[in-house]
Structures are given as structure tokens and as C-alpha cells.
UniProtKB/TrEMBL annotation:
The gene is 106052549. The chain crosses the membrane at residues 46-67, 74-99, 128-149, 263-283, 289-307. GO terms for cellular component: plasma membrane. This is Uncharacterized protein. It is found in: Membrane. Belongs to the ZIP transporter (TC 2.A.5) family.
């Protein structure tokens, strides 16, 4: 109506010109107010969230599968592959999902778009996704440039091999048995308590429990936003938890702990993710709280991807 003079009313000619616009608005619901921004039921939040966290918790017992490969070169290859996957998924989820959600850029449900698409089957790439991809591309570009400069630098082969041996993951010779591990630990000065749990193992288990608690909180907030965001965050958490749990398992074994005890304690520390999940779902009913959780989670994901891994 803004294109016509509201004081003079509508004549027959203007009404005929206005009819196509009225029909278009009626068909596509352009002017209809969205009554439900988030139509996810509580059962879906708890159900999908519980399933996702349970699958992630299974990462803690996958060390049993890696045990036969622990003394082979394939262990390093598997761990490096999952580490690379974890870096990509964590950083991409933080840039493309969590930060836009925290800022309200990507805050919509299935009926809560600020605009309607005439063709629901068309693939629409939002502007913030393009900017996010440029950020990720810039990061990888400078990483490749730095990598090329290091390889073309003045480092000798012996120096490179020495650095690689210090920075590579240590592979535990599990196949040689706990007696071999105990002898190595004694020679390196690692103190083992009477129950086979070292101070290092306690720190790893407690730290892993707190880390999983934060992961569960992030997953709970994500599923409170939408199922798609919850699935994306769960995949990112899974990809960084898998190499993380395998590394923790190797360290626990190297500290002198038996395989059975290491698997049990690793799994118990993973169960704290359920506490974080249910707390995250409850507190994320408030949009402001959910936005803050997304912001904190994005910072945690970026730190883990670029520093910790």
C-alpha cells in the first residue's frame, strides 16, 4: 500500500495493479508473521542429543581396536588422518555455524527465515557463509605458504629428522606386555601408585572429564537451536574426540595402567558429556544464554583446532 496514496483510497485501476502483489503475498506468506521460530520438541532435543553423545562416548573404547596396530606405522597414519579431519571440522563449525548463531545471523528455524525462497529446492548460499569460507581459505593459504617456506628453507635433512622425531606422536609398544611398560616407566621416573594409577593418569582423566562436560554443553545448546546445527556440532566434536581419546588411551597404557582399567576410566570420563548435554538443553531454553554458549563453544573449537591439535 505504500506505493499508493493512502488518503485518496483505491480506484479500479490501482486495485488491478495491486492484485498480483496481494496474490503473491498470499501464496508465499511474505507478510505472515512466524509463530514458531524453533519448533523442536523437548523429546527431539533430548533424544537426538542423547544419541549423539552416546556415539561420541564410544570413541573412548575404540582404543581396544587400535591396540593391535599400536606397534605399527599405521597407528601414526590413522591418528594423523583423524587429527587433520578434526582441525577442519572444528574450525569450519566454529566459523560457519557457531559464530553466526551467537551473533544472530543464522538464528532461524524451519519457518523462521527472514525471507522466503520461491524455489524450496534451490541451493541458497548465504552471504555470511561466503565470508566464512574466505576466512577458512585465508587461513589455509598462509599455512601452505609457511609450510612451503619451511621446506624450501636452509634446514638440513638431519635437523628436519630430529625435529620430526621430537614432534611426532609416541607409539606405545603395547604388544610387548605390561611388564615391558612397567620397566620403561621406572626407568623414566614415572611414579606408579599401588592401584596402578599415576598422577599423570589422574590429571588426564580429570581433564578429559571436564573437556567432555564442555562438549556435552555445546551439543545441548546446538540441538536446542536446530537439529541441523546439533548434528553439525556433534560431527565436529566426534572428529576431535576420536584422536583425543586414542591419544589419552595410549598415554594411560604407557603410564603402566592395564588395558582393561584404561578403557574403563576413559569411558567413565566420557560419560560426563551426558551431564553437560542435559544442563545445556535446560539452560539453552533462553535465547540469550544459548547465544553465549555458542560464542564460548566457538572460541573453544578454534583454540583446539589451531593450538591444541
Amino acid at each position: 500500500m505504500a506505493i499508493f496514496d493512502s488518503q485518496s483510497g483505491l480506484n479500479k485501476t490501482n486495485f488491478e495493479l495491486l492484485c498480483p502483489a496481494l496474490i503473491n503475498q498470499k501464496l508465499y506468506g511474505t507478510c505472515s508473521e512466524s509463530t514458531s521460530v524453533n519448533n523442536i520438541s523437548d523429546a527431539e532435543k533430548f533424544g537426538y542429543g542423547t544419541l549423539a553423545v552416546f556415539i561420541i562416548c564410544l570413541c573412548s573404547v575404540l582404543g581396544l581396536i587400535v591396540v593391535p596396530c599400536a606397534s605399527k606405522k599405521v597407528y601414526n597414519f590413522i591418528l594423523s588422518s583423524f587429527l587433520g579431519l578434526a582441525v577442519g571440522t572444528l574450525f569450519a563449525d566454529a566459523i560457519l555455524h557457531l559464530i553466526p548463531m551467537a551473533m544472530g545471523i543464522h538464528d532461524h528455524g524451519e519457518e523462521g527465515h527472514g525471507h522466503s525462497h520461491e524455489d524450496s529446492d534451490a541451493i541458497v548460499v548465504e552471504e555470511y557463509v561466503k565470508y566464512g569460507l574466505v576466512i577458512i581459505g585465508g587461513l589455509y593459504l598462509f599455512y601452505i605458504i609457511e609450510l612451503l617456506m619451511e621446506n624450501l628453507g636452509h634446514h638440513s635433512h638431519s635437523h628436519s629428522e630430529h625435529d620430526h622425531s621430537e614432534n611426532s606422536y609416541q607409539v606405545t609398544e603395547i604388544s610387548e606386555g605390561p611388564d615391558k611398560l612397567k620397566t620403561e616407566n621406572d626407568s623414566h621416573g614415572i611414579k606408579t601408585s599401588k592401584n596402578g594409577v599415576t598422577p599423570l593418569a589422574v590429571m588426564i582423566i580429570l581433564g578429559d572429564g571436564l573437556h567432555n562436560l564442555a562438549d556435552g554443553l555445546a551439543i545441548g545448546a546446538a540441538f536446542s537451536g536446530s537439529i541441523s546445527v546439533g548434528v553439525g556440532t556433534s560431527i565436529a566434536v566426534f572428529c576431535h574426540e576420536l584422536p583425543h581419546e586414542l591419544g589419552d588411551f595410549a598415554v594411560l597404557i604407557k603410564s603402566g595402567m592395564s588395558i582393561k582399567k584404561a578403557l574403563g576410566l576413559n569411558f567413565l570420563s566420557a560419560l560426563t558429556a551426558f551431564i553437560g548435554l542435559y544442563v545445556g538443553i535446560v539452560v539453552s531454553a533462553n535465547d540469550v544464554v544459548r547465544a553465549w554458549i555458542f560464542a564460548i563453544t566457538a572460541g573453544m573449537f578454534i583454540y583446539i583446532a589451531l593450538v591444541d591439535l
